[in-house]
Amino acid sequence: MKSIVVVGAGFAGAYAARGILRRLPADYQLVLINPSPDFVFKPLIHELATGVFGKSVVTEPIGSFLRHKRFQFVQAAATKIDLQKQSVSVGRRSVGYDYLVLASGSGTNFFGVPGAEKFCCKLESVKDAALIKSALLSLRQNSRIVIIGGGPTGIELSAEVAVFASQLKKNASVTVIDISPRLLPQVSGRFRAKVQKYLLKHSISFLPGSGAAKISKNSVTTGKGSKLHADLIIWAAGIKPNLIAASQRIHQVEGYFAVDKYLRLKNCRNVFAAGDCAFVVNPDGKPVPALAQSAVAEGSAVAKNVLADINNKPLHEFVFHSKGFILTLGRGYAVADIKGFVFAGFFAWWLNRLAYLTAMMTFPHRFYVLMKWKIGFFRRRNAKKI
Ligand SMILES: Cc1cc2nc3c(=O)[nH]c(=O)nc-3n(C[C@H](O)[C@H](O)[C@H](O)COP(=O)(O)OP(=O)(O)OC[C@H]3O[C@@H](n4cnc5c(N)ncnc54)[C@H](O)[C@@H]3O)c2cc1C
Questions:
Q1: Which of 155, 240, 248, 315 is the most exposed place for a label (fewest CB within 10 A)?
Q2: Which domains are delineated in the chain?
């Protein structure tokens, strides 16, 4: 029996595996390797950390949406790839492949800032969310929370933290610092103005041009030399790809797996890469952003190309078409840019919820989450540890 091996069950890996399983050729099996038995909906991690809902909304068991008599799940982390022997090491075991899909995602990039890894909470997994929530619950009155990184993740997090801290009556201050001289440099002026207005209204401070240079237990020293006291420091400043060691050199761009227009590793016709671990470029030369919507599109495209290659059909060139950008800020409010049309409010928030619902893996889970959101909207946030 021939094998297709998928490494990673985030958006890219789950969509690739599901697409392949729908038309799995009779002489193939599919093996999925992932450290956890659950698919984790990462864009909701900060809402899990701030009590908007529980773990059951953010995770879906892999077995609930990947089922096939020739499907095998290996719960472990892949440790090494051998491109010549066509195998992936998983602990002491080795899994052979005819086609390999790399979708190992990304982790936190602390950019070597002294003390960052030791003293900051990060925001990447359910475990991280549990740590942040527990830290928020145990804050004393008038505490100071510093969020490092004023990109979309840091800003969304600051809004959720401010609402949660206010519900807990902690009278906490929330400050976001960023090395960039402007808030959200990637968005339009109208978009930025709406976000700035929200931050101002909710007393969230934004310090531009202030990269973190050193972190200690209760303080952040910026590159400009100023020292901010902090009772809780959360790092939301960047990602780096989860690369897997290989016995042969794999082409990389800026540390990411380099792929061609069919999402194949360069010079490797039977290995594909998708999602946050891959450096994907659109035909216009612009890099595709590391987002859930691009990981979904890339995972689906890889599934089509693996099947096309097996069936000796031409491969499809990958082109990413953005569906728009929505930044949620607390309960029932978001700012959206859909094809250049910028608007804010409840409708934008609801559009974001709809987009998330459609990206979830099964209909029962979507229905469950919809019910949870409807009920949760009128309730106080969950103030129990995860
Ligand atoms: C807090 C937060 C908010 C975000 N908000 C948004 C948003 O609003 N909109 C948006 O579009 N995107 C958002 N993103 C980004 C989005 O979540 C990622 O771009 C997306 O998850 C990437 O999907 P992926 O499949 O490449 O990787 P991941 O979702 O990271 O999945 C990778 C999988 O691979 C597994 N893995 C890692 N190493 C190995 C290994 N060695 N062997 C086997 N398996 C391995 C991991 O355990 C994981 O299951 C957000 C991210 C975060 C953290």
A1: 248
A2: 2-35+76-107+239-310 (3.50.50.60), 110-237+324-377 (3.50.50.100)
